[in-house]
Amino acid sequence: MTDLSMPATTGTTTVGEARELRRLLAVVLDAITLDYAAPDCERRLADRAGWAHTVLTAVNNGTSNDIGWEADFLRSKLTAEQADADAKAVRRSVDRAFPAVAAFLADEREAGK
Questions:
Q1: How many other CB atoms sit within 10 Å of the CB of residue 36?
Q2: CA 78, CA 45: separation in Å to the nearest integer?
Q3: What pLDDT is stored for residue 6 in this prediction?
Q4: d(C-alpha 89, C-alpha 103), whole Å
Q5: Torsion of CA 76, 78, 80, 86, to 10 degrees
Q6: Which long-range contacts (C-beta less than 8 Å, at least 24 apart) are formed by 73-81?
Q7: For 27-56, how does the pLDDT look when each residue is reduced to its tens digit (9 = 90+)?
Q8: Angle formed at CA 51 by CA 27 and CA 55, multiple of 5 degrees
């Protein structure tokens, strides 16, 4: 846990730093905001929280001096994760619409192993 009795920095925050910090916080908020009805919601939230934790730890510990880079990194992870979730949703939709095709493709994948 972080010791909050002493300030992390003694200098003043610039407008640019404040803007980057707000951008990082917005991305972290996006990371921990997910529709609870979404498939695999718990797993996805755990993954997203882990990425957010890593980024926030790096910024808080001072091991990263570029808050903007950290925000961009987390945003790219979230974008890739969402694209993967969307692709899985499409596959599930097709599987429901065409169960015979889904069974055939599953058999083909299994035979290819």
A1: 7
A2: 11
A3: 45
A4: 17
A5: -150
A6: 74/24, 74/27, 74/28, 74/31, 75/27, 75/30, 77/51, 78/27, 78/30, 78/31, 78/48, 78/51, 81/44, 81/47, 81/48
A7: 999 999 999 998 899 999 999 999 999 999
A8: 70
- Beta-carbon contacts of 94 under 8 Å, excluding residues fewer than 6 positions away, are 101, 102
Predicted structure pTM score: 0.73
The residues, any chain, with a CB within 8 Å of residue 81's CB and separated by 6 or more, are 44, 47, 48
Spatial CA neighbour of 33 closest among 81, 68, 67: 81
